[in-house]
Amino acid sequence: MARPMGPVRLKKTNPLTLVIGVVLCLFILFFLMSPTGSSGGSISSVNVKKPVVASHPLSPPTSPFRKPKANKNGKTAPPPVIHYNLNNVTISANPIENNENVLILTPMARFYQEYWDNLLKLTYPHQLITLGFILPKNKEGNEATSLLQAQISKTQKTAAEKDRFKSIIILRQDFDPPLASQDESERHKMQNQKPRRAAMSKARNSLLFTTLGPSVSWVLWLDADIVETPPDLIQDLAMHDKPIVVPNCFQKYYDADKRAMDMRPYDFNNWKDSPTAQELASKMGKDDILLEGYSDMATFRALMAYMYDERADKHMEVELDGIGGAAALVKADVHRDGAMFPPFAFYHLIETEGFAKMARRLGWISTGLPNYLVYHYNE
To answer: Is the pLDDT of residue 66 over 80?
Structure first.
């Protein structure tokens, strides 16, 4: 028969144990109630690495650099020897998740506020973006440089940290521009194309070779007169995971007949080659170039500008033989392989079209997105 239980005596609790328990409870409550990220849910709140500050002026130009202070003798430390393992640089269809650095390069003759405003709206984390500009040394270039520097100062000094770019590089051309005027009517005259585009090639190459650092994954070529793009431009183009990918460039304008805003194709340098163009090239001199969009030189190429279909898939792809430079996302390895912008007749092509040809000769294919639009400034 079971005996009835006597009174139970509890062991006296150690005060130190109670204190530790209270501290643990408070820590758990704080951990559970603290926010997991910044408010707003913007793409810039993604956990991206802080930009690495360059330790010396000879470090990669795409890393921010702060000039070191001299010692008491007025001397600074000698340049370091730095090793870079390019095998650790990823170039993927998910650039944000992989913290991939993007270099946005813009040859600029005129400054458009709409261009800068659109740049600020890009949702790719600005901490991973380096901007590079090259401007001519003339009156118009000086004015554009002043306006650009004013906006850079405003953004980098007073904007929220998430809106500031990793670093910004401004270059000035060491050669005179071939045209006295940058008006659209002058730029597009047929007789001005070869000298104008040769000068553009030199500017692009100077900008590229000066700014392409070992940590760059993607290069986005964006003309200074592209004033409207989708905010997710970089992610949208990168998701195709192509060596070279270009959107379709249109222009918005007021149609007097319709009494409403409308849009029209603008960039005719995105094309698939044709037998007619190849035959024309075979009869040309070695320094002659083929031009697109001129009635005096009918090539009958398939132009991406006319492939646009608002009802079709926005991300439909077409293979291209020539590209324009309005907007083009390029894997950095394409440039590292040696693909540049020929300022001379390269298979009778020059500048961006010559670049596409050179890239193809190196094994890199260009891809166009006829239904993905960016917009050019309307003068």
So the answer is: no
C-alpha angle 262/263/265, rounded to 5°?
155
Are the CB atoms for 197 and 348 separated by under 8 Å? no
* Residue 110 domain boundaries: 90-376
Give every CB contact of residue 298 below 8 A, 6+ residues apart in sequence. 276
Q: Strand pairing of 216-222 and 318-320?
A: unpaired
pLDDT for position 22: 66
Whole-number average pLDDT of the chain: 87
Neighbours of 57 (CB within 10 A): 11
**Is pLDDT at 31 greater than 60 in this prediction?**
no
- pLDDT value, residue 26: 67
- Token digits of residue 351: 């500048």
Q: Please, what sign has the CA dihedral across residues 196, 228, 352, 191?
A: negative
What do you get for the CA distance between the two ends of the chain, in Å? 106
Q: Is the pLDDT of residue 301 over 80?
A: yes
Total tally of structural domains belonging to the chain = 1
**Can you give the CATH number for the domain in which 312 is found?**
3.90.550.10
The answer to whether the CB of 281 falls within 8 A of the CB of 349 is: no
Contact assessment for residue 123 and residue 44, using Cβ atoms and an 8 Å cutoff: yes
User: How far is the CA of 13 from the CAs of 7, 8, 19, 20, 297, in angstroms?
Assistant: 18, 15, 11, 12, 96
Q: Quick: pLDDT tens for 358-374.
A: 999 999 999 999 999 99
- Tally Cβ neighbours within 10 Å of residue 233: 24
pLDDT at 35: 47
pTM above 0.70, yes or no: yes
Residue 271 counted as domain residue: yes
Distance CA 148, CA 109 (A): 11
> Residue 151: what residue type?
Q
